[in-house]
Write a structure and sequence with these properties.
The complex is a heterodimer of chains A (325) and B (323). By secondary structure, chain A is an alpha/beta fold. Chain A folds into two domains: 182 residues, Rossmann fold, CATH 3.40.50.970; 128 residues, 3-Layer(aba) Sandwich (Rossmann fold). Chain A is 37% helix and 18% strand. Chain A contains twelve helices and 14 strands. A seven-stranded mixed sheet of chain A has the order 3-2-4-5-7-6-12, with helices on both faces. Chain A has a five-stranded mixed sheet with strand order 9-11-10-13-14, with helices on both faces. In chain A, strands 1-8 form a two-stranded antiparallel sheet. In chain A, helix 1 packs parallel to helix 7, helix 3 packs parallel to helix 4 and helix 9 packs across helix 10. Chain A is globular, with a radius of gyration of 19 Å. In chain B, strand 3, helix 6 and strand 4 form a beta-alpha-beta unit. In chain B, 43% of the residues lie in helices and 12% in strands. Chain B has 323 residues and is an alpha/beta fold. In chain B, the strands form two sheets. Chain B has a six-stranded parallel sheet. In chain B, strands 5-6 form a two-stranded antiparallel sheet. The chains are: A alpha/beta (325), B alpha/beta (323). The interface between A and B is large, with 43 and 47 residues.
């Protein structure tokens, strides 16, 4: 066991997969010489050379298209989009090409493409650089959407994403790169599509993922101090998401709070709540609570920005409401 | 070229042209749905561009894709069945007219977002380079594509990384109903492409010989590691943009003028001049084409759609643990 940061976990996953499989190549804006805007690709150019990791022009749509071509041509590309915000420029290539090509052409090939995208708010980057777009991607048939919240998971899931033969949108929260935890020295690829109960409890289930899983954990601590036993489920993969795991937890606690950083309308929390109503309506003792980002573009001013993003006390309040105490 | 090669070229031009005539008939009968874009008039562009390709080379293009598929060696029956939406179509009826694809012949698809496949072509070129293969990518698109952002991203990266892609611009002079002069600030599309530092060529897209000769050079350069080049093939589509377009924006005299330059009689005249081939031999080819297309239509008529319980097939591949 050793301390492992989210950044180093991702770096190790990339390095180990590049060592393991020569068809794995990494590319994107400033990933090679500059070593990545968030330094996730540090040291990879030196170790693998420009054949395996290369810098690109600022052409997000073109880069996703190039990743598709690389995969069709027999490579296993890992593309870094500098931030998730720039994926909006590339939505045609992601949604109208990458996600649907295998199906549209009758299953004649696989597209083992991984697109890494750092995202999320909280750094006063303003409206255009603070998006949480996971709900956009999770709506798209043909994609797999992963959003780890912990270093060990980040490593295991990125390794799995790179080995996956379907296209994977791999989201990373910008606020987590320096987060550390104790982790084993060797980490095997994880299972995409599996949630994890990160804290056992009996009174209420708190469901979240990515950056917000830490807010959910803090809330569970605060509730515990007050005698409320909250179970916390980390979705980890948002498409396909682990309905079974969440439903079993709610069947036990009979109450659910879903936490999401993005805005509320047609979001991940809405999807989880709707599915729980279908699956375990009879088990519910209270309406499902959603805690989401505010329904506005992200403002710059620190106080306003903080007012947009869910915090632990918001989750505690929602849990109390569900518990009617 | 030998007589045999020329007669083969004649056969393929007739096949591509007559296939579209059959498609129009079947469309009118309601057996083909959706958008359907015919290649009639532009056949010499695709045939000339594909003439010097090898089996291992990749071809990718726009939604006006029937001719790419057929001239690359695709089976006319499987193409027609795809247009019918049937399960023995080349994409099991999931693609349709705009989305033919056949891995076996390295035809990597017709794409219906203008210029959407251009960066995919660049990516294929990158894969070829990374794997140190000797393949070439041929990417077909229309004049309208040169006004899309992603087209410029693709050409820039292709040159920057020196990848083996031959860009074939079918300048049929109209983006649906908007002419090049009304949509492009620079009307020479070759000049526009020159900004990206690659060799550019202008070719008469109504002339099979001119097309194949220009493409031969571009393909050889790509294969020799000299990077991408761009071909502007000036041509004309005889029909509207799609089956639902009566093409009222073009004066009839203009259409008539271009039809006078039709590549099929031009090729026939050259063959007859150089090889003294009797008309009967051409008629024999025409009847062979008729037979092949009769069989293609019959094959399509005999098939059926995938049953709804197979709706979810092919969305995700079951991932094999790659331990």
């Amino acid at each position: 066991m050793a301390r492992l940061s989210y950044r180093d976990a991702l770096n190790q996953a990339l390095r180990e997969e590049m060592q393991r499989d020569e068809s794995v190549i990494v590319f994107g804006e400033d990933v090679a010489l500059y070593e990545g805007s968030f330094k996730v690709t540090r040291g990879l150019l030196k170790e693998f050379g420009e054949e395996r990791i290369f810098d690109t022009p600022i052409s997000e749509a073109g880069l996703v298209g190039a990743a598709i071509g690389l995969a069709l041509g027999g490579m296993r590309p890992v593309l870094e989009l500098m931030t998730v915000n720039f994926a909006l420029v590339a939505m045609d290539q992601i949604v109208n090409h990458l996600s649907l090509m295998r199906y549209m052409f009758g299953g004649q090939f696989t597209l083992p493409v991984t697109i890494r995208m750092p995202g999320g708010g909280g750094h006063q980057l303003g409206a255009q650089h603070s998006h949480s777009l996971e709900a956009f991607f999770a709506r798209v048939p043909g994609l797999i959407v992963v959003y780890p919240g912990w270093p060990a998971d980040a490593k295991a899931l990125l390794k799995a994403a790179i080995r996956e033969d379907n296209p994977v949108i791999f989201l990373e929260h910008e606020g987590l790169y320096n987060y550390e935890e104790d982790a084993p020295d060797e980490i095997e690829p994880g299972h995409l599509g599996e949630a994890r109960v990160i804290r056992k409890g009996t009174d209420v289930t708190i469901v979240s993922y990515g950056g917000m899983i830490h807010v959910a954990s803090q809330a569970a601590e605060m509730l515990a101090a007050d005698g409320v036993s909250a179970e916390v489920v980390d979705l980890r993969t948002l498409r396909p998401w682990d309905k079974q795991c969440v439903a079993s937890s709610v069947a036990k606690t009979h109450r659910a709070v879903v936490v999401e950083e993005g805005p509320p309308v047609c979001g991940i929390a809405a999807e989880v709540a709707a599915s729980l109503c279908e699956l375990v309506f009879d088990e519910l003792d209270a309406p499902i609570e959603r805690v989401t980002g505010a329904d506005v573009p992200m403002p710059y001013a620190k106080n306003l920005e903080q007012a947009c993003i869910p915090h632990a006390p918001d989750v505690v309040r929602a849990a109390r409401k569900a518990l009617a105490r | 070229m030998t007589k045999k090669e020329l007669m083969r070229a004649y056969y393929l031009l007739r096949l591509a042209r007559s296939f579209e005539t059959r498609v129009a008939e079947q469309y009118a009968k309601g057996r083909i749905g959706g958008f359907c874009h015919l290649y009639s008039g532009e056949e010499a562009v695709a045939l000339g561009a594909l003439w010097h390709l090898r089996e291992e080379d990749y071809v990718i293009g726009s939604y006006r894709d029937h001719a790419y598929y057929l001239l690359r060696g695709g089976d006319p029956g499987r193409a027609m069945a795809e247009l019918f939406g049937h399960s023995d179509g080349c994409c099991k009826g999931k693609g349709g007219s705009m989305h033919l694809f056949d891995r076996q012949i390295n035809f990597l698809g017709g794409y219906a977002i203008v210029a959407g496949m251009c960066p995919i072509a660049t990516g294929l070129g990158l894969a070829i380079k990374k794997k140190r293969e000797k393949r070439v990518v041929l990417c077909f698109f229309g004049d309208g594509a040169t006004n899309q952002g992603v087209y410029h991203e693709a050409l820039n990266m292709a040159s920057l990384y020196n990848v083996p892609v031959v860009w074939v611009c079918e300048n049929n002079q109209y983006a649906i109903g908007t002419s090049v002069s009304r949509s492009s600030a620079v009307t020479s599309l070759a000049k526009k492409a020159r900004a990206y530092g690659m060799p550019t060529y202008k070719a008469d897209g109504m002339d099979f010989f001119k097309m194949q000769s220009v493409a031969e050079r571009a393909i050889a350069d790509a294969r020799a590691g000299k990077g991408p080049s761009f071909i502007e093939a000036k041509c004309y589509r005889y029909r509207g943009h799609s089956m639902s377009d009566p093409a009222t924006y073009r004066p009839p005299e203009e259409v008539a003028l271009w039809k006078k330059r039709d590549p099929i009689p031009r090729l026939k005249a050259i063959i007859q001049r150089d090889f003294d081939v009797p008309d009967a031999e051409f008629e024999e080819i025409d009847s062979r084409v008729r037979k092949v297309l009769d069989e293609a239509v019959a094959f399509a008529e005999a098939g059926q759609e995938l049953p709804p319980e197979r709706l979810y097939e092919d969305l995700y591949v079951e991932s094999i643990p790659r331990g």
